[in-house]
């Protein structure tokens, strides 16, 4: 997917990689300042990386991956540039809502519950959203 030179929107790959950095950072309980310091950039630059506003160079992505103890492919997991090539059974990966510490903890804890309780919590969350409590 090519972008015109006058396009100001972040490229979808840059947004995806940035969000994967953010998800891993939050999952490890790190601040943008801590991660930025570890890889030699300011927290403002880390914000721009996570939003996809600035592209992460290959060398910086390598440093981030090394510090977060993940492989480079981790940052591209869940992204497909060619619709239709993903398995039909794979759920769509929705990045419209950035991960928070709470959402990551919910995702980490939910599988530990019995299926019946998972369904109850899911039903409760859906009801809360319908009532407008998700704002």
TrEMBL record:
Organism of this sequence: Brevundimonas albigilva
Protein name: Helix-turn-helix transcriptional regulator
Keywords on record: DNA-binding, Transcription, Transcription regulation
Highest rank taxon of the organism: Bacteria
Any one Pfam family match given in the protein's UniProt record, by short name: HTH_3
Domain called HTH cro/C1-type: residue spans: 21-75
Organism lineage: Bacteria, Pseudomonadati, Pseudomonadota, Alphaproteobacteria, Caulobacterales
Keyword Hydrolase: no
Keyword Transcription: yes
InterPro entries recorded: Cro/C1-type_HTH, Lambda_DNA-bd_dom_sf, TransReg_Diox_bact_type
